[in-house]
Every structure is written in structure tokens, then in C-alpha cells.
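Subject: Sanity check before I submit

Could someone independently write out the C-alpha cells for this chain? I want to compare against mine line by line before I put it in a report. The sequence has 443 residues.
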Amino acid sequence: MKIYPLNFFVKRVLLIRLCAATAIIAVTIGAAAYFVQNSKLSNRVIDLGRRGIATLVDRVRVTMEQEHIDNLSALLEVAGRSEPPVVYRAGRFVNYQVYDRDHRILAEASVYASKIPNIQTFLNSRPLSFPETGNEEAFQVNIDGTLFVYVAAPIISHVGEVVAYVRGIFSVSPEMEAEIHKGVFRSVFIAIAIVISVAALLYPVILQLMRRLADYSTHLIDANLETLSVLGSAIAKRDSDTDAHNFRVSLYSAKIGEAIGLPNSAMRELIKGSFLHDVGKIGIPDNILLKPGKLDKNEFSIMQTHVEKGIDIIRRSSWLRDSIAVVGNHHEKYGGGGYPGNLSGDRIPITARIFAIADVFDALTSVRPYKKSLTFGKSMEILEEGRGTHFDPKILDVFTTIARDLYDQYAGHDGNNLRQDLAAVVEKYFYAGMEPLSYGRSS
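---
Independent answer below. Compare away.
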């Protein structure tokens, strides 16, 4: 799964995806509109052909009645006229044949069809059909790039008898064809324009909702980080009357994690766990927690319970729960013999293995009620003595490359520089990609 910074998502990913969705919907609706309108076009063209054949049949009937001649004579007279028998603004018949049940061609005429020889070829290739009254045969056909309609229908006398059949090719006028196609493309354009307009109207609405969501997200992160700070500070104030230890070990751990190349999710887990590692000491009695000297065996057993107490506190928060890896394992040793689970090697979470080095390094280089701070060289010697037994050798190797800079920058320090540097780390890993969060805020 890809994770995008929110600013990039809002300005680029959201816009691109909305445009892509709009294009797909527009093409789909446009295609649907085209096929619907094209079907209507086809039906309209066929209706023109039917109207033409009906007009031709009517003219034969009128000729029969006006001139008092028989059916065949009327057919021959209409067919023998030099002008097309049916002419509309929408088109005209360019070729037709009159035939009877015995497949005899009684009359035929061709007007303009000579310009398109394939019209006659097409007509002759079709077998003669004998459609029922009211059930004319009609379909659209394209001959040499020109739109035509093939129509076949019975010729009915004034007494209702079928006296013959007529079939022909009806040519749709270029003006009508252009008008019909224009209507099709107009419908498609309107459909696409509506889709694009709706998308354009939706974009600012979606953008505003995203900005509000971003605002709610940052408030939630602020609240969670505040909870983290309060919990960490509560035990720090009770244990040593200062937050400096939590700040330093969190910074040390973060720098080691960065040097190792931990993913962002693990970095967040490491920072939260580092700041809350001793939160369980809230439940340790003062006479043990604040004792200046060495703890006896029973007191040390009670002190060890701060790990379980810390886990019990942390697991109640879904946002803090991932810090259990550090809170519950920061006293484990790489070679075994730690508590509470006597874990060893890679069974200890990597974040806890990182924190173990950071915690001991800070303890060695800081002043405690029962000891003075050690020099950088002496501190590193003690860490080396724990290689493979207390500490993960690979992580210790990475720490060794950055230890001097960390010592010079933070060891024994207590002040705003720690808060500022930790705030920068928190900003990097907890607010990464949240650039537009200020959109919904008043200036």
C-alpha cells in the first residue's frame, strides 16, 4: 500500500484520480449516449424509408383511382415517370422494383443510382421477399460510404387486396444525415459536459472535506502526543524531578533508529516506547523508587514489577499500545538473563534492543543521586563489555559511529535544546505528510 504525504495527496493524487475517474465516467456515459443516439438515428433513418415506400404505394393507389386503370397499369405509369416517385427534404428513392408473387419484376426505376453502381448490385443481390401488411422489411445499409435504407412492403388496393410488392433503396439526403449526426454528437457532448461539470463542482467540496479531516487528524495527534508527554513527565517528576532523562533517551534512540534505517512506523513505536519506558514506576512505592542506595533482593523484585505495571497502563490506549515492545522489553538482555521474560537475541524486539543501549549510555553519562557521570571513553568501555551479553553487537556497532556526536550534544544536558530537538523528531515522524493541516485553521 502506498502512503502519500497529505499535501501531495490533496494537490496531486486526489486531482489526478478525480480527473481519471471523470474521464472514465465521461467516456462511458459518452459511449452510452452515442450508442443510444445512434440507435435512434438508425430508427429514424428506417422510418424515413418506411415513409417513402408508403408514399410510393399511395401514389400507385391514387393513380389507379384517378385514371380508373388496373393495378399493373398504375404501377407502370408511376414507375415510368422520369422524376423520382418520392422526394423529401430528408431524402428520396433512388432505385425500386415492383414484383408479384411469381417473382416477376413488373416495373422498376432507377434515379441517381447510376452514380453509385453498387446500389443496383446490392438490390439485385437481395432475394425477393413478401412481407405481411404492416410488417414491412426495413434496415439501414451503407453503400460506398453513403447512408441508405432498404425497404420492402406490399402494395394494397383500395379493397384491401395485396396486388404486388415493392422494394427499393431510399437515399438519406446529406443535409438530413448531417443533422442527425449533429444531434448524436450534441447529445454525447452534453453528457460529457455534465460529467465534467459535476466533477468540477465536487472537487472543491472533496478538498474542503479533506482539509477538515486533516484538521481533525492533527488535533487527534496533538492530543495523543500530549497524553504521551503527560504520562512520561508524571513518572519523570516522581522519579527524578526532571524530564531530561526521557528527552535524552528518546533522542538517543531516535538517532540510532535513523542510523539503522528503521521504517517510520518502527520509529514512532521507538519514540513512544522510549518516552514511556518507565511509566510503570508510577506504581512503585516511594521508599523503593526514591531509595538513594542499592536495593536489596526483595526491593529489587518489587522494582522489577514496574515493567508489568507499565504494560498494563499502556495497553489501555490503542494509540500507545505499540510502545509495549519497548516498555515491556527494555530490561531484557541480548545474551539472556534479563527480565521479565528472559528473552535473548532476535526474540527481543529491535526497538527494545536499540533502547537498551540508549538507556544505559544515558545512565552512564548522567549524574544520579548515587553516582557521578562517567566520561565518554569510560562509558563506551562499559558498553563494549556488554557486547553480545547485554547489547546487540550489530546495533552497538552502529551506535559507536554516532556516539561521540550524541555525547557532545546531549550528555548531561537539561534544557530547552532537548525539548526543541525532540520536538523536531516528533514533527518528522508523527506529522510527516501533514503539510496542509493549517488550511482549516484561522490565522
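---
OP: Matches mine. For the report I'm noting this point. The mean pLDDT is 79.
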